[in-house]
Amino acid sequence: MKILALESSATACSVALCEEEKLIAQSFQNNGLTHSRTLMPMLEHMLDSCASTLDEIDLIAVAAGPGSFTGLRIGVAAAKGLAWPAEKPCAGVSTLEAMAWTMAHTGGEICAVMDARRSQVYNACFRGTGEGLERLTPDRAIGLPELAAELKNRENPQILVGDGALLCYTTFKEQGLDVHLAPPHLRYQSAWGVARAALEQARTGALTDAQGLVPVYHRLSQAERERLERLRAEEAAEKTR
Fold first, then answer.
1. pTM of the predicted model over 0.85
2. N or C terminus: fewer CB in 10 A for the chain?
């Protein structure tokens, strides 16, 4: 099975072409350019370099969330556009699970974290089994104090992966937690992890189609939060009249 994977959930952006667990090619950028400028040119160049076409692809995979609202929409829209004409199966995978796959071989406990701002991170915890991953928590938005309190009860060291890893490492080390940073080249979101997570979905019959592919945000956008706060303030003011 050939898998084409897209990752645009945060600042880093990547595309990968895999056959089962084998990585054939990957293109990665972490230069701050907008994904609307980089994603499709990276994809086209990678396929051209491999002398591959979309007709040869069996599965389109994308990091569906959590992550940047804009980045997720760009990635999911691109995946839909690639899959829809030929009705190719799709996999919308957890960004956090995809990140954890880079450390699955260690056999250790993996804490995947993305900076969600407002003193929160998107997080999920896993245990590497050597050959795969065992999920320990669901994907969630969680405050740094709450996550630190949870990790204090864990008996094993935690390997931090994701663009929130350095933030958590600095904070948690000050509190005496046994945490370690994944190596820089394995720390950030990558399309290979997306492809590997998608392969698990294919093996368990959990795939979808282009129509069913949607972003999973796990939190309201800033505009939605501000609107909700404004409505609450207006309701409170109305009650005091």
1. yes
2. C
